[in-house]
Amino acid sequence: MTVPAIPTIFSARRRDSRVMRARRRVSGPDAACFIAADMIEDTLDRLAFLRHEGRRALVLGDWTGELARALAEQGRSVDTPQALDPETPFPSGGYDLIVVMGVLDAVNDLPGALIHLRAALVPGGLVMAHFIGGQSLPALRAAMLAAEPDRPAARIHPLVDPRAAPGLLQRAGWKDPVVDTHALTVRYAALDRLVADLRDQGLGNALAKPAAPLGKAALARARAAFAARADAEGKTPETFEIVTLTGRRSLAGT
Asked: What is the CATH number of the domain that holds 181?
């Protein structure tokens, strides 16, 4: 039987480049990092609650470096590879903890990536993956539709619906899989600031075939549509849905 080809929706090069840009921008005076800060705090809280005391960890996608430092302070040996393709088997394994921040929102073969994560764990090892979910950025999406009402181009890449995640985890062989979501709401005075925050945090477009930039008139329509959603204080609320997947490799190592 022929296995269907996996469609190429995302570019690995663009996915890695956006994280590298975020790493360069993080030291800037006004660089946004609230998404990463939320994911790091959540990771540490979960580890404390689970009392997971592994000694060898792999951290992917943390462009701030803060999570690796916190885990190292707990006595863990932490690997933080700058470039590691989650859609291919990992070059090394034996980790008792793997944490992924972002990254999985822009992979073409998400089930395959989840299998590779499990395979890189020791028996009983824990994996925790955070990423932006499908209910994120409603104000930005509405602005992009208003910008090009007749023929809207793909400007925001498709995001994972957390309702589909439990089935993906079971297919990937994760033991004791759990899917959690929570929302962050941030208020913006202008569309441009929201776009800058996305770029600061490695959340830019990673599509393999990105659309051309908006023209002057289309950009004006987008800005106006975003401003039209503003509250009484002149700020537009935007929502970020944070999805967290947790699971283990079985004690039998399967």
From this structure: 3.40.50.150
How many domains does one find in the chain?
Answer: 1
- Residues 6 or more apart whose CB falls under 8 angstroms from that of 233 comprise 187
Amino acid at 122: V
6: in domain: no
- pLDDT greater than 60 at residue 2: no
3 falls within a domain: no
Dist CA 3 CA 177 (whole Å): 26
Helix axes 34-50, 66-73, angle to 10 degrees: 20
Residue 223, domain extent = 12-248
Whole-prediction pTM: 0.91
What torsion, rounded to 10 degrees, do the Cα atoms 119, 157, 40, 117 define?
A: 0
Q: Is 40 inside a domain boundary?
A: yes
Single out the residue of 159, 153, 101 nearest to residue 127, CA to CA: 101
- Using the predicted structure, report yes or no on whether residue 57 has a pLDDT greater than 80: yes
